[in-house]
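Incident log entry.

Two folding requests arrived from the same account within the same minute. Monitoring flagged them as a possible duplicate submission, but the sequences differ. Recording both here for audit purposes.

Request one:
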Amino acid sequence: MRYKKCIFNWSGGKDSALALYHCLQKPDLEIKYLVTTVNDAMNRISMHGVREELLIEQAESIGIPLYQIRLPEMPGMKEYDDTMRLHMDKFVAEGITHAIFGDIFLEDLKA
């Protein structure tokens, strides 16, 4: 069986948890990292404000390595894009070919 090497964009929320559950049922997906953007000033998940300590506990209990992308409190779009590109290039260099999102209500991400 050929595996798709993936990162899973983890927000720590219920939609993310449900999407991850479904992905873990698919034997052709190999999820290498739970990727989360963290507000560097507040040490909280950028999307939901969950504390970093809880984020770490979530990843440990799931058993998938956590990969944090640290962002300043109010990054501009260029800074955000440059930071994300740096990390995505690292993933590509590791052979990761897919990114999974659990934002089930965002039409642009579904597309």
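Request two (distinct sequence, not a duplicate):
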Amino acid sequence: MAEQTRRISPARNILGSLAMPGDKSISHRYALLAGFAEGTSHFTNFSRGADPASSLKCISALGGSVGQNADGTVSVTGTSGRFTESTSALDCGNSGSTMRMLAGLVAGQPFPTTLAGDASLTARPMERIRKPLEQMGATIMLTDGRPPLVVHGGPLRAIEYATPVPSAQVKSAILFAGLQAEGTTLVEESIRTRDHSEIALQAFGAQLHRQGNIVSVRGGQPLHGIEARVPGDLSSAAFFLCAASLFPESSLVFDGVGMNPTRATLLDVLAALGARTRILDLNEAHGELSGTIQLAAPPKGLGGATISGILAAQLIDELPVLAAIAPYTNQGIQIRDARELRVKESDRIALVAKNLRAMGAQVTEYDDGLDVPGGQKLHGAEIDSGGDHRIAMAFSIAALRATGDTLVQGAEHAAISFPEFFEFLDLVCER
């Protein structure tokens, strides 16, 4: 991926209507489960991001048949639960989602599988999935707790497992392995994380049971191909929702955006900050909600917020952009209980603090979060994305209210999750 620097000029307003690309989290799960299922699945509005493409590539290497069309439709013919051993390491690219969740699927296969990735992914911790998968009967080999990850699969037994740190990816890996285990596998979370995997498993024909923060799946259930439209990605819409909230006369409409309750918390936070949000319609398909969202900024600017506990867990992907716009709020934003940001594609807490300071902001960094006072004026600067797509996009939004132009280094990394980002930004910015 060639290094790109993107110049972002200040905007006068944010106006327009956008149809968001397919949800990255759902696209991952549909790709992996379709590859494991019997029959052929067809998906429209599948994410064009590099991360879901890694999931499709890995499924193809394991014997699935993948077709991708110019109009964005994707077809996957599955393996009926019997993958073919790959002759080389599976390349997960930059995608921790691919690596962690696919580890659960290959844990029940009677051969070893090596999962590798780029430099960023190789630096991320994978110990969290090793413990439960080894309790189930697989053998997991890591290097100092990090990839490449070698999974020696085989017959699995069901377990009851309480996740030490809330993680939808770890939960998914256990459930995907549990689908192949003898008995019923149970996962308990202290805070309920995204439930896209549970919803997707049910869409493909599996029966699950949920009671509070405990979800269980019985082993030996077959999956069957589906036809589905992937809802628009709310985490991608988050950048534009935050941008619109900064300009008093803004108005943005988003069509067909995913409204899963474990993801839509951002709308509640923006409303609490003072943004005027309206849900114009709501639809359900294959267990996932989607709708049309309209957002306008408050005339007197955003207020302030403290984000911690369950809120921090549910907003983990949106926290960088919320922190990036925090200086423009009236009362600032405080973030706690978000230590997970330290082990994403980058140390997002450190990079947010570094880049806010480069733009002239005051910020206090903590081990698990940030304090960003409100009422600040920022100036253009050179932004270090750290090779992280969400940092590159978050500070492109912060640049819209800054004085002078901002140079975003590593802007090409936005394509990891949102290749259309800069095109959409040009569409809605009035300058």
